[in-house]
Amino acid sequence: MDTEAQPTERDRSSSPEPEAAEDRSRFAFLTRVADWLPGGWITLTLFTCLAFLLVLNTFVAQPFQIPSGSMEQGLRIGDRVLVNKLAYRFGAEPRRGDVVVFDGTGYFGDADYIKRVVGVGGDLVVCCDKEGRIKVNGRPVDETAFLYPGDTPSTVPFYVEVPEGTLFVLGDHRGDSSDSRDHLGSPGGGMIPVGDVIGRADWIVWPYAHWTHLTRPAAYARVPAAQGSKGAGAAHG
Question: pTM of the prediction?
Answer without folding.
Answer: 0.74
